Automatic annotation (TrEMBL), chain A:
Gene3D superfamilies per record: 2Fe-2S iron-sulphur cluster binding domain, sarcosine oxidase, alpha subunit, N-terminal domain, FAD/NAD(P)-binding domain, Probable tRNA modification gtpase trme, domain 1
Protein known as: Sarcosine oxidase subunit alpha family protein
GO terms assigned for molecular function: sarcosine oxidase activity
Signal peptide limits: none
Pfam families the UniProt entry points to: Fer2_4, GCV_T, GCV_T_C, Pyr_redox_2, SO_alpha_A3
Keyword Oxidoreductase in annotation: yes
Domain FAD/NAD(P)-binding stretches: 170-423
Classification via NCBIfam families: soxA
Swiss-Prot/TrEMBL keywords: Oxidoreductase
Residues of the Aminomethyltransferase C-terminal domain: 910-995
Residue ranges annotated for the GCVT N-terminal domain, each copy included: 620-889
Family: Belongs to the GcvT family.
Every SoxA A3 domain range: 522-602
Automatic annotation (TrEMBL), chain B:
Compartments in which it is found: Cytoplasm
Keywords: Cytoplasm, FAD, Flavoprotein, FMN, Nucleotide-binding, Oxidoreductase
Catalysed reactions, as listed in the record: sarcosine + (6S)-5,6,7,8-tetrahydrofolate + O2 = (6R)-5,10-methylene-5,6,7,8-tetrahydrofolate + glycine + H2O2; sarcosine + O2 + H2O = formaldehyde + glycine + H2O2
Named cofactor requirement(s): FMN; FAD
Record domain Rhodanese: where: 36-79
Enzyme class: oxidoreductase
Protein's name in the database: Sarcosine oxidase subunit beta
InterPro entries according to UniProt: FAD-dep_OxRdtase (IPR006076), FAD/NAD-bd_sf (IPR036188), Rhodanese-like_dom (IPR001763), SoxB (IPR006278)
Lineage of source species: Bacteria, Pseudomonadati, Pseudomonadota, Alphaproteobacteria, Rhodobacterales
PANTHER family attached to this UniProt entry: FAD-DEPENDENT OXIDOREDUCTASE DOMAIN-CONTAINING PROTEIN 1, SARCOSINE DEHYDROGENASE-RELATED
Protein family: Belongs to the SoxB family.
């Protein structure tokens, strides 16, 4: 059984006991425990079920590489699926439950898959469930889907919050083991701005557990001293619980900090996402131990040798009373020695190598541990827990020589440097044959924008596996980093670790070497996804021989650990099956993040109302107080209408229109784009931008203009105002302001960079209010201060002055067809003016109106709306706007496009109005039917509706739309399709339904 | 070819699956072929498949510079739909969708086509009008789609938040027979079928030059030697510009990174595909339980198959708003592919200025769903030298004439 030892445990605080709950059971632990340590201390080795066969799964590792020990953590609004117990810090009151089983962890019906495992090899679903056809959707897939997934999806919105921090540094050091500390110390001393990030809650990495001796003292002391020194440097930032997730182009680095994961509900954000721009990245992320592939290596109780050592040394937990160690290298002997020193039994060390005579094996033997060289585990015995191992010859086929009872197996297949951060941005790897591992190829690093190396690898992450090598390598890397930053390295103390002589590793990818098929079907590579040696061999046999094919066909390395334990073993098996060299087979691509990152953290505080920037006009509060119904327009939220008590939206819109037509209405038009264009070449520039001539517009006048893209399609419209000799103000649509400003800058910066023009988007600097309706002038006169008479201020002019004491620019322009003034005032005066207009207008029946009333009124008047009449395929000529296209100008954006055959065709659909015969409203988006079918066999269309409304003014349905040869077909009756499947008949009419001569707006 | 079935699996199980044969052969290139297809993505493989199946041309090589299916066809989010606005689009996408319905049986390879239903959310009034327009257009085209209410949306996707503070759901365009399929299986199924017809699928064989005489194509040079051919089909997505240059013409194509990501697997919580185009995000859940998530393209041109973080963030922001429960789920993996974007966001299936050289590209962010239809149309073009009705409108000269097939009209994101 696994249990807590009475002594030791460098990371636990025995003075502080905690209580946690696992599957409803109450378990005791200590502060400092990981959830794994606490579970093991309570003999809870079985923690989950595998994905495909629902096999019992136990804890395998002690860190981020853990594939099995995933739990549902927390409950309700704090429930989180797939939490790795090895990286979860235990706290008092923690609640966890195992996953992927029914009805319980111990008795799982899904385990019938295990009995059928032989019939469910890699890729079996590609070969079956093919007939009968409907069965996939209705029978097979639902069953497969039901068994999909691991943890349960949270049922409630997240109770926690997350934050993001931006940071810059010269050198980002990922990994706070001895290599990272040493490199950071050198860079820090040289004056570089350093960020040193460590994913666990502790500094020092493996060295203390591995018993490294640095500068003659236990590693722990060197670590403390180095941290001390780093802590005194103001240019160095140290962070634990902070996992570097990804390295992106241009030195962009993401890191996820666990702030309050272990103190839930304490008011702090649960996690913090660091968004760092680093000049260089130093990857000191260590190495991961590889499992060995032998039959039954997935049975709970089989663990990584280094993890066993960690549990004993860090948390005083023994994974088993009798632990068999199996290895192909010397390092695992440290585990045997640690177990023995803790008073536990190690019945045998099984060493696959022919000889085991290094210093560590000698020491083990001297301690009385039996060492068997040239041997293999043929098979592990047990179901939900290891009960013993069968041994045989490594060189054999699996004949059993001896059976040994034990309750744990510590395995080591050697080490693989963590090369993820090196690889994210394109760093290449090289195969180190002697050490049987891929390590960063210093000659082919990931590059920065200037072509220099972005990432430098150091320590075990660079293949320098022992403490002594790691420190020496880190010192070199630190100096290289300093140099690459154009700084000078200062003399800095370099730690010297005592070298322990280790014999060479011997690559072992499967044991025993000649294992039969029946054994290979029991050798797990990917514990979570249930991928076995036989599966990879099958993939190779069937031609899925690219490593990417094998991965996808077998799902090897696609589990939540992303193959941290399985990838190298898998591709070695593949290489063997293909009779190729390991480096020829290569690895799959390493993609961010290093370990999974909470989506909430990636989003940070951009939640709810502010999940996107929220733009508010100066009058927004007033609208909200009036209970306006808001609709999103770009990042704005504009009043759609102002419903009164008991009114539907439709009733409100009708009331607003009728009142504006009869009396006077107010529209908050502040969202309208306002771009100042200024400079000696501004006129010339606008003549290129607009289809009509703007340079000839007299100062003080307004002109409606159209903008097209290069293809000739209409992209925006608005009124242009000439403010001064060299200054124009361009109004754009509300949704188009930023796009058009960007468009202008695109041309000015990329094409006409020598033109003397400045643009400024002043949309938010001004509040704009439309006062529209027959009594509009009366309201303005009541405010007083400016002469707004027809004579002084005729239609399409503007004047600057003061209205009611507020500096204002008053434009005589109209989008409603009414007598209308659009008043622009500095944003800070917007609300004051609005309120004054409301007060002054009271006696004239003033009411605010929203966007829907605006839309309907402009449709009644036959004004086009960008986005309704246009959709990116419509040219101004389609809309009868030929008058706004200059024939004189040599060029403007879109001119050439519009000359192309298809755009110049007389058969294009053109703008007309429609009136249904029965007064009903044509459905949104309906098409005008044509006789017959086209080449595809589709029913033909000859036009479509673009704006369709009930007009309260005219008391009937009105519409605008595009129709083939439309303007020549006035009076004709056409048919639209409807959603319900029927048709509706409408007459083709003039699109201007109201005041065709403009008497109202000109009045 | 040995057929796949439950019985075959049972038989093989008894001998530890040692009797399975290769899914496709791995031949060396022959000196000459009747037709060469460059690019073993879905579109290239489907083109070859229909050259054999519909036109009896089987002396064909498919040349792939890496591993087959390693381009966008193996990196996409596998959404299949045909609810397009323009007639030419609907015609080819609906053809493709209907071929997906029987693809597993046609190829004897389970591609797991799952018509689980697809929703495009309308979150502004403007978007609602646009989708209603598409539904009306689909009616005329005979493509089954409908406009459904927010309540019906909620019923289909219980975890959705339909009254978010910024963009409440106003309704959705729903295609019940839209859905997903397993992308690798599509690529592999075609490769196996092509190989079975005697075609050569040649991997690790990069085309480095195109040979021609008197304005007619004569062959290609590759990293595995020169190969001649009577006809050449270029089907290389993001690298179309590079191949076009080899063939001596230019294309109106920009290459950009499009990213996607998956979450860790969780128990099923969303059964349909949901696209939210106003806020730029879409989501579905794979049969493994991973949430498969995508968004818009990066805003700059490039050839690296990775993207920037900023787009991932924008996409996730949008999706958390729509599906609040995903906040505590974790992102497992993000990646990118290079998509080939045309000016009107519609593909090119066209003759080229070089005789007997044809090109199929421009599928951009949304070509997985088109694979069988595109292959069908491209095969016809290659076989006959002239486009059939499905390809007729997609020629590359349409840009010169302004004859656009603009789909960005219907949806900002077109996956
Ligand atoms: C992240 C992402 C998500 C997407 N989501 C969807 C979706 O949900 N639904 C959808 O319908 N579509 C989606 N797409 C789009 C879809 O993936 C593509 O449109 C489609 O796969 C393109 O297929 P293809 O065969 O044309 O190109 P590819 O699959 O890219 O194949 C082209 C092949 O050509 C090869 N090649 C290139 N140059 C050479 C050369 N010189 N010699 C030989 N071979 C060469 C490449 O290696 C590659 O294998 C998505 C794309 C991406 C990137």
């Amino acid at each position: 059984m696994s249990t807590r030892l009475s002594k030791g445990g460098r990371l636990i605080d025995r003075a502080h006991a905690i209580e946690i709950s696992f599957n409803g059971k109450r378990l005791r632990g200590y502060r400092g425990d990981t959830l794994s340590a606490a579970l093991l201390a309570n003999d809870q080795m079985l923690v989950g079920r595998s994905f495909k066969y629902h096999r019992p799964r136990g804890i395998v590792a002690s860190g981020a590489e853990e594939p099995n020990a995933l739990v549902n953590l927390g409950a309700g609004a704090r429930a989180e699926p797939n939490q790795r117990t090895t990286t979860t810090e235990a706290f008092d009151g923690l609640v966890a439950a195992s996953q992927n089983h029914w009805p319980s962890l111990d008795y799982d019906i899904g385990a019938v898959n295990n009995l059928a495992a032989r019939f469910l090899p890699a890729g079996f679903y590609y070969k079956t469930f093919i007939h009968p056809r409907p069965a996939w959707k209705h029978l097979f897939e639902p069953i497969i889907r039901r068994s999909a997934g691991l943890g349960k999806a949270p049922a409630e919105p997240d109770a926690d919050r997350y934050e993001q921090v931006y940071a810059h540094c010269d050198l980002l050091v990922a990994g706070g083991g001895i290599a990272g500390l040493q490199a950071a110390l050198i860079a820090g001393a040289a004056g570089a701005r350093v960020m040193l990030l460590e994913q666990t809650a502790h500094w020092g990495g493996r060295a203390p557990v591995d018993g490294d001796v640095i500068d003659g003292k236990p590693a722990e002391e060197w670590i403390t001293a180095t941290l001390d020194a780093l802590g005194k440097m103001e240019n160095v930032t140290l962070k634990t619980r902070c996992m570097v997730a990804g390295v992106y182009d241009h030195g962009y680095v993401l890191a996820e900090e666990r702030v309050a994961d272990h103190t839930p509900g304490d008011g702090r954000p649960r996690k913090r996402l660091w968004r760092i721009r680093a000049t260089r990245v130093l990857s000191a992320t260590g190495a991961l131990e590889r499992p060995l592939a032998f039959a039954g290596n997935d049975i709970p109780g089989v663990m990584l040798a280094s993890a066993v050592r960690d549990y004993v040394g860090n948390w005083a937990v023994s994974p088993g009373d009798r632990t068999v160690v199996v290895t192909n290298n010397d390092d695992a002997y440290r585990t045997a020695i640690a177990l023995k020193e803790a008073g536990l039994e190690v019945p045998v060390i099984v060493d696959a190598r022919a000889q085991a005579n290094g210093a560590l094996p000698q020491k083990a033997r001297a301690m009385g541990i039996r060492v068997e060289a040239g041997r293999a585990i043929v098979k592990v015995k047990g179901g939900k827990r290891v009960t013993g191992v069968a041994l045989g010859l490594m060189a054999g086929e699996g004949a059993v020589l001896e059976e040994i009872a034990c309750d744990a197996v510590a395995m080591s297949g050697g080490w693989s440097p963590v090369v993820h951060l090196w690889s994210h941005c394109g760093g290449k790897l090289t195969w180190d044959r002697a050490r049987a591992m891929f390590r960063p190829d210093a000659a082919r690093p990931p590059l920065t924008q200037d072509g220099s190396a972005l990432v430098i690898a150091a320590g075990a992450a660079n293949g320098a596996l022992t403490g002594a090598e790691a420190l020496a390598d880190a010192a070199e890397a630190g100096v290289a980093a300093v140099k690459s930053l154009d700084l000078k390295a200062k003399t800095t103390p370099i730690g010297k670790a005592e070298a322990v002589e280790e014999a060479m590793i011997e690559p072992v990818w499967m044991m025993p070497q000649g294992a039969k098929a029946s054994l290979r079907m029991k050798m797990w590579l990917d514990f979570q996804n249930d991928v076995k040696v036989s599966d990879v061999q099958l993939a190779a046999r069937e031609g899925y021989q690219s490593v990417e094919h094998t991965k996808r066909y077998t799902t090897l390395g696609m589990a939540t650990d992303q193959g941290k334990l399985s990838n190298i073993n898998g591709l070695a098996i593949l290489a063997d099956a293909l009779n190729e060299d390991i480096p020829a087979v290569g690895t799959t691509t390493f993609r961010p993040p290093y370990t999974p990152v909470t989506i909430g953290a990636l989003v940070g505080e951009a939640r709810g109302e502010i999940f996107q920037p929220l733009r508010r006009t100066p009058m927004q509060g007033w609208h909200e107080a009036q209970g306006a119904y808001l609709e999103p327009v770009g990042l704005w939220r504009r009043p759609y209408c102002y419903p009164r008590a008991g009114e539907t939206h439709e009733q409100a819109v009708n009331r607003e229109i009728l009142n504006t037509r009869a009396n006077v209405g107010l529209l908050d038009a502040s969202t309208l784009g306002k771009i100042i264009v200024r400079g000696p070449d501004a006129g010339r520039f606008l003549d290129m931008l607009y289809t009509n001539v703007m340079s000839s517009l007299p100062v003080g006048k307004c002109r409606y203009g159209l903008m097209c893209n290069e293809q000739g399609f209409l992209s925006d419209d608005g009124v242009v105002v000439r403010l001064a000799e060299d200054t124009w103000l361009c109004h754009t649509t509300s949704g188009g302001a930023d796009r058009i400003h960007g468009w202008m800058e695109d041309w000015l910066q990329c094409e006409w960079w020598d033109w003397k023009v400045y643009t400024a988007n002043v949309t938010e600097q001004y509040a704009q209010i439309a006062v529209a309706g027959p009594k509009a002038r009366l309201v303005l006169e009541k405010l007083g201060g400016m002469d707004v008479s027809k004579e002084t201020m005729p239609f399409m002019t503007f004047a600057e002055g003061e209205l009611a004491g507020i500096p204002a620019r008053v434009h005589r322009i109209s989008f409603s067809g009414e007598l209308s003034y659009e008043i622009a005032v500095p944003a800070s005066h917007g609300l004051a003016l609005w309120e004054k207009l409301v007060a002054a207008g009271a006696e004239f029946g003033v009411m605010p109106y929203g966007t829907e009333a605006m839309h309907i009124m402009r449709a009644e008047k036959g004004f086009i709306m960008i986005g309704d009449e246009t959709d990116g395929t419509v040219i101004p000529q389609d809309l009868g706007l030929d008058w706004a296209i200059s024939k004189k100008k040599a060029d403007f954006l879109g001119k050439r496009g519009q000359e192309r055959t298809y755009l110049a065709s007389p058969d294009r659909w053109k703008l007309v109005g429609f009136e249904t015969l029965d007064g009903s409203v044509i459905p949104d988006g309906a098409y005008v039917l044509d006789a017959g079918t086209n080449d595809y066999g589709f029913r033909k269309a000859q036009g479509r509706v673009t704006s369709t409304y009930h007009s309260p003014t005219l008391q009937k349905g009105i519409a605008m739309g595009l129709l083939r040869h439309g303007p020549q077909r006035m009076g004709e009756v056409v048919e639209f399709n409807t959603m319900a499947g029927g048709t509706v008949a409408a007459r083709v009419v003039n699109p201007v339904f109201l005041d065709p001569n403009g008497e109202k707006q000109n009045g | 070819m040995k057929r796949y079935s439950v019985f075959a699996i049972a038989r093989e199980a008894l001998r530890y699956h040692t009797g399975w044969e290769r899914a496709w052969r791995s031949p060396d290139p022959k000196p000459a072929y009747d037709a060469i297809i460059i690019g073993a993505g879905g579109h290239g493989l489907a083109t070859a498949y229909y050259l054999g199946k519909n036109h009896g041309i089987t002396n064909v090589a498919i040349l792939e510079k890496g591993w087959l299916g390693g381009g966008n066809s193996g990196r996409n989010t596998t959404i299949i739909r045909s609810n397009y606005l323009q007639d030419s689009s609907s015609a080819i996408f609906e053809k493709a969708r209907s071929l997906y319905e029987t693809m597993s049986q046609d190829l004897n390879y389970n591609v797991m086509f799952s018509p689980r239903g697809l929703l495009m959310l309308a979150q502004t009034h403007h978007e609602a009008r646009g989708y209603k327009r598409t539904v009306h257009a689909n009616r005329l085209q005979g493509v089954a789609t409908e406009w459904i209410s927010p309540q019906e949306v909620k019923k289909l996707v219980p975890i959705i938040n339909i009254d978010g503070p910024r963009y409440p759901v106003l309704g959705a365009q729903y295609q019940a027979r839209g859905g997903t399929a397993r992308h690798d299986a599509v690529n592999w199924g075609y490769a196996r079928a092509c190989s079975d017809m005697g075609m050569d699928v040649i991997q690790n064989c990069e085309v480095t030059a195109i040979r021609s005489e008197n304005g007619m194509v004569t062959g290609v040079e590759t990293t595995r030697g020169a190969i001649s051919c009577k006809k050449l089909g270029i089907v290389v997505a993001g690298h179309s510009g590079v191949l076009a240059e080899m063939a001596g013409f230019r294309l109106p194509i920009e290459s950009m990174a499009l990213q996607a990501l998956v979450s860790e697997p969780i128990k099923p919580c969303i059964d349909v595909v949901v696209m939210a185009n106003t806020v730029h995000g879409y989501i579905s859940q794979s049969d493994k339980g991973e949430l498969v998530i995508g968004g818009g393209t990066d805003g700059f041109n490039n050839y690296t198959q990775r993207g920037s973080f900023q787009h991932i963030e924008e996409t996730l922001r949008a999706l958390i708003e729509t599906f609040p429960i995903i906040s505590r789920v974790k992102m497992l993996r993000q990646w990118g592919g290079i998509v080939d974007m045309t000016g009107d966001r519609s593909p090119i299936i066209s003759k080229t200025p070089l005789g007997n050289c044809f090109i199929n590209c421009g599928w951009g962010t949304g070509g997985f769903k088109a694979i069988p239809g595109s292959g069908w149309a491209m095969a016809e073009l290659v076989a006959k030298g002239e486009p059939g009705p499905l390809a007729a409108e997609f020629d590359m000269w349409r840009f010169k004439e302004g004859r656009f097939i603009d789909e960005s009209v219907a949806a900002g994101v077109a996956h």
